[in-house]
């Protein structure tokens, strides 16, 4: 698990940098494409796929216990319907999808992106088991589990549960295979068709949600997975982010120093921020950024810096900059770093902290929020 965690952290850093470029350039392209162009739909799909890919990285980090998990009250029916819609456009038409989704089954405490990944993994395995021809059945309903149903899970309490079922008409599994399917790296697929991590990740996510997963399979008769999540007492639902069209982003005319050792990302962000009206200077070296800031500390209103850079990390650069000018606001962003967390960044007086990929809307809103807060503070400070 330690080795998997180390590998996951390295993958996350590099992959999130790539996703930042994909998402950012898709958003840039949308600005240049006419509203009636068929290409807009293609770019929206690229952006949505990028968002889902970033969710996949979070899933890997969660499995290796390298990511904090935030459980929110959600309606699983919304997530399931979204997955069904995505599946219909991505799996062969020779697979019939039958769905029985109860929109009134209630809420549960969960991470919606991880529930999305659970269902996508189960459905992908089902399609593979049917050799891309058969019936995929997805059900979501409210049920009750008693003490007899939970003999193997003494940590779970009897009561109301939301059951998510994924069934297929595929080849099924024998008892020996069924006992091993949740083992990491165990797979029935040939080389090049899977890592053997899918069901292990599913099991890890479900367990982290204080849920339970059971499998019923018979050779030649198909397989059904039943996943149980405790029904929440409250029906209040947290807002969920989706890959919908971007709202209007705030603009400005302040001066920004942007620092990242990836020249492609630097150029992309300069185009985005220039397009929002800001005056942007860029550096691909943290040492060069420190030198230019030292020579003109009042020439910038904000510094945005990557964390992982050769020679001097973003945190080290931030400390140097604030040593020269304590009031300079700094935004730190990173592909993945075990060296700094949101709380640690806040303790160092870093104003905002992001994990890549960062969308233009997110960064623009954070920038505007910082500048607006500074404007609100100036009259108060001048009166002291």
Please tell me about this protein's structure.
This protein is elongated. Helix 1 runs antiparallel to helix 2, helix 4 packs antiparallel against helix 6 (198-208) and helix 8 (286-295) runs parallel beside helix 9. It is built from eleven helices and twelve strands. The protein is of the alpha/beta class and 384 residues long. The chain folds into two domains: 69-245, Heat Shock Protein 90; 255-382, 3-Layer(aba) Sandwich (Rossmann fold), CATH 3.40.50. Strand 8 (255-259), helix 7 (263-275) and strand 9 (279-283) form a beta-alpha-beta unit.
What's the mean pLDDT score?
83
**SSE string, helix = H, strand = E?**
HHEHEEHEEHHEEEHEHEHEHEH
Domain count = 2
Widest β-sheet, arrangement of strands? 2-4-5-7-6
What would the keywords be for this entry?
384 residues, alpha/beta, Heat Shock Protein 90, Rossmann fold, 2 domains, 5-stranded parallel β-sheet
């Amino acid at each position: 698990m330690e080795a998997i965690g180390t590998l996951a952290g390295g993958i996350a850093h590099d992959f999130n940098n790539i996703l930042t470029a994909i998402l950012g350039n898709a958003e840039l392209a949308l600005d240049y494409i006419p509203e009636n162009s068929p290409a807009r739909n293609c770019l929206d799909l690229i952006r949505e796929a990028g968002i889902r890919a970033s969710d996949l990285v979070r899933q890997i980090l969660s499995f290796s216990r390298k990511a904090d998990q935030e459980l929110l009250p959600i309606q699983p029916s919304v997530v399931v319907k979204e997955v069904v819609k995505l599946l219909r456009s991505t799996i062969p038409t020779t697979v019939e999808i039958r769905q029985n989704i109860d929109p009134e089954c209630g809420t549960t405490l969960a991470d919606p992106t991880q529930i999305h990944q659970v269902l996508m993994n189960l459905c992908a395995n089902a399609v593979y088991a049917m050799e891309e021809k058969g019936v995929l059945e997805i059900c979501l309903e409210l049920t009750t589990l008693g003490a007899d149903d939970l003999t193997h899970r003494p940590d779970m309490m009897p009561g109301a549960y939301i059951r998510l079922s994924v069934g297929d008409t595929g080849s099924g599994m024998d008892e020996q295979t069924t006992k091993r399917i949740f083992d990491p790296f165990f797979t029935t697929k040939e080389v090049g068709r899977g890592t053997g991590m899918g069901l292990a990740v599913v099991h890890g996510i479900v367990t982290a949600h204080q849920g339970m997963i059971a499998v019923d399979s018979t050779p030649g008769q198909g397989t059904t997975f039943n996943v149980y999540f405790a029904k929440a007492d409250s029906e209040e639902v947290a807002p969920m982010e989706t890959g919908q069209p971007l709202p209007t982003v705030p603009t400005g005319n302040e001066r920004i120093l942007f620092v990242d050792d990836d020249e492609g990302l630097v150029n992309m962000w300069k185009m985005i921020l220039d397009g929002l009206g800001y005056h942007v200077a860029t550096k691909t070296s943290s040492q060069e950024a420190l030198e230019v800031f030292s020579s003109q500390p009042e020439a910038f209103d904000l510094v945005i810096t990557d964390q992982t850079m050769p020679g001097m990390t973003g945190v080290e650069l931030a400390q140097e900059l604030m040593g020269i000018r304590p009031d300079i606001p700094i935004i730190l962003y990173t592909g993945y770093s075990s060296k700094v967390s949101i709380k640690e960044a806040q303790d160092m007086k870093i104003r905002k902290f992001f994990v890549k990929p960062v969308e233009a809307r997110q960064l623009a809103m954070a920038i505007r929020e910082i500048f607006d807060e500074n404007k609100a503070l100036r009259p108060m400070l001048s009166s002291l």
